Amino acid sequence: MSNRESYPPAYRCVFNDGDSPATAEAEPVLIQDKDIDIPVIDLERLDKKILREVCMEWGIFRLENHGVPLALTSQVQEISKSLLNLPYENKRKLFDAVNSQITYFYGTPALNQSGDALPTRAANVNVVEGFYVPISSLSKLPASSTSDDDAQQSKLSSFRVLMEEYGRHAARIAKSLFEAIAQTLNLELSDDIRSAYLSESTGLLRVYRYPRISREAAGEALGMEAHRDSSVISILKEDESGGLEIMKGEEWFGIKPVANTFIVNLGDIMQAISDDEYISVKHRVKTKMNMTTERHSMGYFVLPERDFVIKSSKYKPFTYAEFEAQVKADIQSVGSKIGLPRFNPNSPLFL
Ligand SMILES: O=C(O)CCC(=O)C(=O)O
Ligand SMILES: [Fe+2]
């Protein structure tokens, strides 16, 4: 059955309604870049030498033996999906009611937090919808539904309970990985500094849905444009649809989803503290290979404390708050994130 009504009106014109005979007959266009196997890291047997090589060469890996129960991840995916599948108007109202805790968006997440100003042309727009929740805000969501008939509130409270548990696992994974990566860099970190890099108060969960879009509308549209994450570490859980791509050398490569694993990538902050030894990998999400099904994913982003000063031999000292403000300003003025080069004193971009 079509879930067209759950989409923002601006997406309905590009929606691939699988129920309609015209599109049901159409073959999905599988124009895709070559696939690549990314390295696998076993969280239970962290080999520092391998981890170092992977961080230098790839900046991304698949994590196995992570200890997150499969049932929990599936439940988190299901509840997130069912929230996004609510009729658009109800969904807006529900998220608006808890506005300061959850931010709903579609289009470019960094710009259109309220979902406004989506250009009508699908090309060059992020064809994605979702919401984000700071970890620290989960506890402010309804704990249990107030009345039996309020199915939506109860979805939200289930989301809270499941996400709190999932968030604890993600924080545990982030801590182990950060610890191991810091050792591979011979960084001597005090407890205070370690917790400033892994601030749970600024950690962020993002939940995404990439709509199925029609062949005509797909064109060159991307689910998410090429970017590097601003995080310390990002932990991604995707469904089985595929579409995530990384840039290696000068080429794009698709990454095939593998059940019960997470994809971990290093962000800009990790690149900066490694003095550019490790890389914040460029990645994107393609939608056109994926037109007959939706794609769902969610990311846990480990961010440093906002006012903690990041020091690096390659960049001028900056706080995460400054970094984020610069990213926003660049998106407004040049249309895309510039990121670390903005803080490189040798770059012509340095202000
Ligand atoms: O949805 C995905 O698979 C990737 C999302 C992503 O790259 C991000 O949120 O930074
Ligand atoms: Fe990303």
Automatic annotation (TrEMBL):
Keywords: Iron, Metal-binding, Oxidoreductase. Residues 200-304 form the Fe2OG dioxygenase domain. GO terms for molecular function: metal ion binding; oxidoreductase activity. The keyword Iron applies. InterPro entries: DIOX_N, IPNS-like_FE2OG_OXY, IPNS-like_sf, Iron_ascorbate_oxido_reductase, Oxoglu/Fe-dep_dioxygenase_dom. The keyword Transmembrane helix does not apply. It comes from the Eukaryota. Pfam families: 2OG-FeII_Oxy, DIOX_N. Belongs to the iron/ascorbate-dependent oxidoreductase family. PANTHER family: 2-OXOGLUTARATE (2OG) AND FE(II)-DEPENDENT OXYGENASE SUPERFAMILY PROTEIN-RELATED. This is Gibberellin 2-beta-dioxygenase 6. It comes from Cardamine amara subsp. amara.
